[in-house]
Amino acid sequence: MPWIDKDGCVGCGICVEKCPIGAISMDDERAKINMEKCIHCGTCHSVCPQEAVRHDSEKIPENIKANVEQTKKFMEACVKYLGDDKEGQKCLNRMIKHFNKEKIVAEKTLEELEKLRYE
Ligand code: SF4
Ligand code: SF4
After folding, report:
1. What is the per-residue pLDDT across 88-101, written as a single tens digit (0 to 9) for each?
2. Fewest Cβ atoms nearer than 10 Å: which of 1, 61, 66, 94?
3. pLDDT, averaged across the chain
4. Are residue 49 and residue 65 in the same domain, yes or no?
5. Same domain, 105 and 67
6. Would the CB of 52 count as within 6 Å of ligand 2?
7. Residue 35, ligand 2, Cβ within 6 A
């Protein structure tokens, strides 16, 4: 999924003009993508002269950090509200199960997507 690097965007509006389905607008002189509308065509990546339209994969470290922080918060809350350190470890196990499920969904989805390749 594309995203706009607000520090790199100079508000030239080229991506707004070139997006084939009008999914990009200007917000406070910076481009903003409506992800509900975006069809992931990649045009905005190609046309931006500032390389301000970035790839989803660049957010992987940020995503991992957010997942770990979220897990820590849940663990702390389980200890606090259930009153036992063991509850924190149970919470951790549940979060590990959750992310394992996400991994399986991603792997199986990739298998199915490979079947969509044209001959
Ligand atoms: S083309 Fe690039 S610099 Fe221009 S508005 Fe779009 S994201 Fe910003
Ligand atoms: S990927 Fe395509 S549809 Fe999505 S915002 Fe960029 S140009 Fe528009």
Report:
1. 999 999 999 999 99
2. 61
3. 96
4. no
5. yes
6. no
7. no
